[in-house]
Recover the amino acids of this structure.
């Protein structure tokens, strides 16, 4: 019958031998690259692309058409390694040489070897390759095949070094993706996934190289798409407070800021949308009374977005319309900082104030920072805290510093310790002196300091800690001296306050005089304002205290050093978001007042046991959830320059192409076994039917007419 005839016909077709494929050798690969890089030989370039495609698809279960189109076969790991390494490192040079010379198919009199129009030793890819005469029939199809093979290989790779190696190669070929938008989007999606969620540092950096190159080389409209994807990846990572995410979030923030500089209009559009989202979250928190809304407004994602766009505005304050976002940024940061006036929220408040200081110094936009800082000074009640508050060494201070550096919400038990309040007051003095020093050369400095100095005098009278009173008195003296100097200078001017240019020149002249006088320790006596000198000394003292890992007192401004030593605090602490742990007032402190000269007595046995239990519980919590360290600064532009100078860096040394070849061989060997098993199941259960009642070709029907019949079915 007809079925028996079809089976006999299929059996005859299966016996037909496959078309033989050329086996590639190492010497052939070297010869192809020598010819292509020396004279831009198109035939050699085409052979390289075929070999690279065979290497990328090695071991894959391709359809019949794909297997026939390869025409070459790679049988050893040495050939596989040579094809992959030389292709990924030199293919951009090969295509550049083909563009420059045209190979042996070039027009007569142009590009001939040693001719008059011979190219330079190191040709580069054209910025608009689709307009080149060699693009349509030569480089276009070859580059499309090469890039699609590399993108396919990316989908199969899991090793960090291999991913980094391939991303860097595609970054060099970014100009050729202008006419292959589908491949560009596909590679961009892969690079965004690695950049935002990848674990390897090398792969993440090389993925950023590809994204940056595509943003610059692709046609107009592609950069906003890349920027939007990077902002989404940054927001997803900023949502968590894990310690492992800190370096990645910092690197991503610097990458986004660097990309914003390439197109300020697109950056403004993205920043405006991000700030509108943050404003909606803050408005919901202000209008509603739900703690969930407040936690969302003061969470890592919202704060991370505000820090991102604050860094972008600080990087480009006076260019395009991006600098106009400084005002809404100040409003949002101030609103988030003062949303919940709780002692547990002091780390968040000081973090927002630090961002506001950066924004004010970069954009010269005055932000009223004295009010939220003075609230911290007046909010400390200086009460005796929990049992673990007395005694201890530098480890407690280091734990408190980690909380202020890496968390937004301090644990309730830690907020009741004296070490926590001391660290908050010291950081507040540093930020307050920085804010005042930034405006100490302005003509309106005496009027700007009236309100904060009034509160600072009250703090100096009411604070029971002598060294903090001395800090306040020294700062008051520096402010008074600076205000008197500014008044003396402006007494001789003849312009009105509405003359903005003259006001700016007055401030610039004061800064120039301070710069001529000296820097560092000589600043106080060599022209710098007294407030600026106080800030320089206090900043150095804060750095020394942080390096020492404790809250031991460092003399600032001439006060006598304290001999009390460090007060112990809870280390690290969890970034808790429980509603019950947040106190909206300063009356949550319990215990007796701790006067100036009072010292803690020796703890009893019961107190010691309780202290040990408390420390053990805190240690277990720290082990369960590590603290989020301070985000390091990353110079993205320097990394790009270093990557451009170093062709491959150390990435190539880490690539194990032999393992990649072995995995492909194993996958290729497993395919026939799976096909045989499937064939056995089919023979046992009867012939399978395809759609429309037609028989589906079995796994054995490969090659020749059988393939055509399978495709028709």
């Amino acid at each position: 019958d007809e079925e028996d005839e079809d089976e006999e016909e299929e059996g005859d077709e299966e016996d037909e031998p496959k078309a033989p494929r050329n086996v590639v050798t190492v010497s052939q690969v070297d010869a192809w690259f020598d010819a292509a890089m020396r004279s831009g030989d198109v035939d050699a370039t085409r052979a390289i692309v075929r070999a690279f495609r065979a290497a990328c698809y090695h071991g894959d279960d391709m359809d019949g058409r794909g297997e026939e189109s390869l025409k070459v076969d790679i049988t050893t790991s040495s050939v596989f390694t040579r094809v992959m390494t030389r292709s990924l490192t030199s293919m951009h040079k090969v295509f550049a040489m083909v563009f420059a010379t045209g190979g042996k198919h070039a027009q007569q009199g142009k590009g001939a070897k040693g001719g008059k129009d011979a190219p330079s030793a190191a040709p580069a890819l054209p910025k608009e390759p689709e307009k080149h005469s060699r693009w349509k029939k030569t480089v276009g199809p070859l580059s499309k095949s090469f890039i699609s093979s590399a993108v396919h290989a990316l989908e199969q790779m899991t090793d960090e070094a291999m991913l980094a190696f391939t991303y860097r190669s595609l970054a060099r070929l970014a100009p050729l993706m202008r006419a292959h938008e589908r491949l560009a989007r596909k590679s961009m999606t892969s690079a965004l996934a690695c950049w935002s969620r990848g674990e390897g540092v090398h792969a993440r950096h090389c993925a950023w190289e590809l994204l940056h190159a595509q943003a610059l080389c692709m046609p107009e409209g592609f950069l906003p798409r890349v920027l939007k994807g990077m902002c989404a990846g940054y927001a997803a990572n900023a949502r968590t407070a894990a310690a492992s995410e800190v370096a990645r979030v910092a690197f991503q923030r610097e990458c986004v800021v660097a990309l914003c500089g390439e197109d300020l209009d697109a950056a403004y559009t993205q920043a405006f949308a991000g700030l509108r989202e943050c404003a909606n979250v803050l408005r919901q928190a202000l209008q509603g009374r739900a703690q969930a809304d407040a936690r969302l407004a003061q969470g890592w994602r919202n704060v991370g977005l505000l820090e991102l766009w604050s860094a972008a505005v600080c990087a480009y304050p006076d260019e395009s319309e991006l600098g106009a976002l400084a005002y809404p940024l100040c409003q949002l940061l101030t609103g988030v900082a003062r949303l919940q006036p709780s002692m547990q929220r002091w780390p968040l408040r000081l973090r927002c104030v630090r961002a506001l200081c950066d924004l004010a110094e970069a954009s010269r936009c005055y932000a009223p920072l004295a009010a939220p800082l003075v609230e911290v000074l007046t909010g400390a009640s200086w009460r005796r805290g929990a049992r673990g508050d007395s005694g201890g060494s530098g480890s407690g201070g280091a734990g408190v510093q980690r909380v202020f550096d890496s968390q937004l919400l301090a644990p309730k038990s830690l907020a009741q310790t004296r070490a926590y309040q001391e660290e908050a007051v010291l950081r507040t003095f540093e930020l307050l002196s920085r804010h005042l020093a930034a405006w100490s050369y302005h003509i309106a400095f005496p009027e700007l300091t009236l309100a904060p100095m009034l509160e600072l005098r009250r703090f100096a009278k009411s604070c029971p800690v002598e060294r903090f009173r001395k800090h306040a008195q020294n700062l008051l003296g520096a402010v008074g001296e600076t205000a008197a100097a500014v008044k003396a200078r402006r007494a001789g001017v003849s312009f009105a306050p509405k003359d903005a240019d003259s006001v700016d020149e007055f401030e610039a002249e004061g800064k120039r005089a301070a710069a001529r006088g000296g820097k560092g320790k000589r600043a106080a006596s060599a022209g710098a304002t007294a407030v600026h000198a106080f800030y320089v000394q206090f900043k150095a003292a804060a750095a020394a205290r942080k390096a020492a890992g404790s809250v031991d007192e460092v003399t600032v401004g001439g006060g006598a050093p304290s001999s009390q030593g460090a007060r112990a605090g809870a280390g690290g602490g969890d970034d808790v978001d429980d509603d019950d742990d947040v106190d909206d007032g300063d009356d949550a402190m319990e215990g007796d007042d701790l006067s100036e000269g009072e010292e803690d007595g020796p703890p009893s046995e019961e107190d010691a046991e309780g202290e040990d239990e408390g420390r053990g519980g805190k240690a277990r919590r720290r082990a369960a959830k590590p603290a989020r360290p301070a985000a390091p600064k990353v110079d993205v532009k320097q990394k790009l320059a270093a990557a451009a100078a170093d062709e491959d860096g150390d990435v190539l040394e880490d690539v194990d192409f032999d393992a990649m070849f072995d995995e492909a061989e194993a996958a290729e060997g497993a395919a026939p076994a799976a096909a045989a098993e499937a064939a056995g199941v089919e023979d046992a259960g009867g012939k399978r039917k395809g759609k429309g009642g037609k028989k589906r070709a079995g796994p054995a029907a490969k090659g020749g007419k059988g393939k055509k019949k399978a495709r028709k079915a």
